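Subgroup meeting minutes
Present: P.N., E.W., G.H.
Scribe: E.W.

1. P.N. recapped why we're keeping a running log of single-chain structure predictions: easier to compare across weeks, and new members can see raw inputs and outputs side by side.
2. G.H. added today's entry (118 aa).
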Amino acid sequence: MSFWEKVTGSDLTREWQAFEARAAALPADHRAAWEQIRGQLLPHGDFSGRSLLPILDAALGLLEEAAADGQSSHEVLGDDIAGFCTALAGGEGTRTYRDRWREQLNRNVARKLGRLGG
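Output recorded in log:
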C-alpha cells in the first residue's frame, strides 16, 4: 500500500467493494448474517476501519465456508450474533471508538476547566 492510498483511503474502498462482492455471492441467510456482523463490529474499529479488515475478512470467510459446506448461518454462528461479534472484537467491555472519543473529550474539558479554575 502506498502512502497516497493510505492517506486517501482508496485501498479501503477497494477492500470494502471486494467484501461486498463476496457477500453478494452468499445465500440470503448468510448475507443477512454478514450484515449483522458488519453492523456489530464497525463500532469496534478505529477511525479508518483498518483494524477491522482482518476480522471482517475472517468472518466473511467463515460464512463462505459454511455456505460451501451447506451449513446454515445459524448452525455456524448460533442464536447470538452480537455475542459472536463481541468475542471477535476482544470480549465483553472492549472499547469502541465512541468510548475513546468520550474519554478524550472528558480529558480535554477537565484540562480546560483546570486551567480556568486555577
